[in-house]
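The authors assume throughout that readers already know how a fold can be written as discrete tokens. What matters is that the chain and its backbone geometry are given together, residue for residue. A single example would do more here than another paragraph of explanation. For illustration, here is how one protein appears when written out as sequence plus structure tokens.
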Amino acid sequence: MPVKIILGTSHGDEGKGRVVDDLVQTWADVVIRFQGGGNAGHTVYDKEGNKYVTHQLPVGVLDESKLNIISKGCVLNPVDVYKETKSLNLKKFNLKISGLCPIIEPTHILKDKLKYQGKGIGPAYSDYYARDSILFRDLVNDHKLSMEKIKDKFFKFQTYTKLFISDQEQLNKNFEFFNDWIRFYEDSVSMLKEFVIENENIFQDLFSDRLNILLEGAQGYGLSIDSQNYPNVTSSFPTIGGALNATGYNHTQIEEVIGVSKIYKTKVGSGDFFSRCNKDDEEVLAREGKEFGATTGRPRKCGWLDIDELK
């Protein structure tokens, strides 16, 4: 019945997916993703050398004998998860999704694109803490009513865009994106609703069943929303506290916390990166380490390991 947590100790991209995959093959019965959304990616290879990249789905989905859970600490883009399940081309998904996951809506993505990479993570968490989210259980219970709310937010955003930006080309692009998203909406809900968790006590039930439970982190400690690196952070808690809050486990139920690091640091995206090395050294590290984002494909900034931060 042990519970183990996998955490990144830097700014993400430490190789957590590989460690999770090793434990899936040798130890874990259950894999639980506890924070973040589709802004993270884990890259793993099977025994034949085939490459797989997961974003929102836990790495354990690659082994259909394992139970995989997306917990309430995650924000969920149903269309992206639907597309991800299709792209992996697996015969079976042993997957459960918390009905309490806040939904990433098209408007969240459009707002996010004004400043960041555009996955909608930050605006989705913002709506959640403002108590204005559509939850996954809302989609399952009444997807038509949920769509009306999604449309209402979108048209309010378009009105704002028209008043303050006055860019007709941008308005048209927003409509194109929105229409493309809703084109997959009903199929997404239809497929994903079979995975909804009806009872959040499932986490304690799995513990009572004496199963080996692995909590899979995304990003890293240095990107926690409440870290000293704010505002150059993510919008969730890739920490021990985040894992406990998302699952309901308490500290006495955690057997081991595994921190993953590598011998240099990387960072994807904008914002300060104080450990960044000079251009020539960065090119060597990026080339040898194949440092390109699993989700975005963007080259990662490379720098020296910060021992004080690691400690």
Remarks:
- The radius of gyration is 19 Å.
- The longest strand covers residues 254-260.
- Residues 79 and 188 are 6 Å apart (CA to CA).
- The mean pLDDT is 92.
